[in-house]
Amino acid sequence: MNNPNHNALDDRALAARFLEGRDEASFRTLYRAYTPGLLLFARRLLGGDQDAEDVLQETWIRAMRRLESFRWESSLRTWLCAILLNCCREVRRNRSPQADPEAVSQFPSPPGLGPAEASQLERSVHSLPDGCREVLVLHDIEGYTHEEISSLLAIAVGTSKSQLSRARQTLRAQLEPGSGAAVRRNP
Amino acid sequence: MTDPTHDTDEIPELRSLPRETLPPPELEDHVVAELRRTGLLRAPRGIFRSPRLQAALATAAGVTLFIAGWLAASSQKSSPAPAPQAQPTYALLLRAGPDYREGTEADEQQRVKEYGTWARGLHEKGQLIRGEKLNDDARTLIAREGTVSFLEQPSGEQGPVLGFFLIQARSLDHALQIARECPHLRHGGVIEIRPIDPT
Question: What is the pLDDT of residues A19-50, one digit of tens each?
Fold first, then answer.
């Protein structure tokens, strides 16, 4: 999240204030705390920037519509991710078969990887089948556990583990030296 | 959240990928505008005292004052505008809309002239019946799922109504054609064209 001092207590207070008067300032605070993460998550799941931004907007609309019934049994971040995942799946279902599979967003470069290597790694992640990609992104990038992924994606824990294993194998094969997609860290 | 039991074949580079990105700056306002349109968000208290809305309302007020003044002046002359023929009446609802652009004080004066020129043209053709600014001290009642909620603000999916014109036109298409010439569109405003039911 953008603001390291933002925490779950803030979320509950902001949500309460939002619900009390449909307060714009409270919404904007929540938006700024979670959008940087949600947007990158959506880009990784969908590829295109425009789709990701549309999905982000729809996620916030659905979330604010359902906020009153959110029971705070998970973190707000996890709940928002679940809504965003559903929106992404709807977009993928409605996508034209002619959609450009190479239309991958520009991603920020992480420390330790050069821009070209980071871009190649993102493209390799994007090339994974949808199910594998979702689990890989959630587990290896977002840091969710298999139990959490099981709940988020409505799949068995075993399925989450096998999808992750398959995703890593595929990715590793793509990234091996000589595959044309090798990723090397900066010295 | 990290699962410590399943990391033996992890690809370490994945952990180093960023988890956040800087959103496009305009995206936040788009999302807020969409939430307002769907009624999920209310404008901050005192929005009608904000410079943006004040400017928008000042424009509408200026337009109305101009029209009212001009019409008053016209009525004192011996050559009134042609008498309106028996044509259907349409309401042109001028809304702020999400893309409405406020201007500087100098711009506002220019806009008053633009709106006034447009309204004068309509009047000369006998097409303008009335133009009014709506006061911002509005209340909204919303019936939803058997209950009525109350907002201390105007409502409307396309932004608050700033003012309206009643015009006479041959048809809805003709009214649309007239509305297309309204300067409000050049400033990012929204115009809703509604036939007045004669019954």
Answer: 998 888 899 999 999 999 999 999 999 987 78
